[in-house]
Amino acid sequence: EAVQCFLDVTCEKYKKYVGEFFGTTFKGFFSDETRMIRNTQHRFTEPTVAFSLNMFERLEERGIENLNECLAAAFADEDSPRIHECRWAYWNRVTELYGESFYDQLREWADRNGVIYTGDCFSEESGIIPQMGDYFRMARPYHMPGLDALCAPKQQGRESFKSPKFASSVAHQNEGPVAGRVLCEGPGLLG
Predict the structure, then answer these.
(1) Which of 34, 68, 112, 177 is 20 to 30 A (C-alpha) from 10?
(2) 124-153, pLDDT tens digit by residue?
(3) pTM of the prediction?
(4) Residue pLDDT, tens place only, 34-71
(5) Around Cβ 117, how many Cβ atoms within 10 Å?
(6) Residue 86: closest CA among 96, 95, 76
(7) How far is residue 27's CA from residue 23's CA, in Å, rounded to a whole number?
(8) Residue 112, C-beta contacts closer than 8 angstroms, at least 6 positions apart
């Protein structure tokens, strides 16, 4: 419902506003650093977790047999084969739900309306799993996956250069008019 509302108040309005240029001069939409939990790198420091009002029902419908055990395992400080199994089951199902609820809906809307859906799923300096689970599941719906390359030289480290390989891996598997292409947001923050 929330994503459909977003499509109605943004994408549909752009479509109406640009009229005949929609799909030609105005080629598509870019979503920037969308994630299933709020951004903790700036002003929020408390841990957050993805949630919706019907999330537990939807997880159980997808085969999570012991939801309480999986929730505990998702945040446990200890390791064991059972905790790993439960943690994987939880994050895998949450990733599926988020992908279907957000990225897939945007891709389907773009396909129906003849435009490109592109964007990047995470900021270049942050971890992937806590924000979205499976990067490749989230980026697959992009017609043209994107990435950030905005770090100042002092901030660039090995972690900063993961996102080009992730995005290009998805791009090489895509089909269609922009297959194999990646969109890069950068350079920035250098002044």
Answers:
(1) 177
(2) 555 555 556 788 888 899 999 988 777 666
(3) 0.82
(4) 766 655 555 555 556 777 788 889 888 988 888 888 88
(5) 22
(6) 76
(7) 5
(8) none
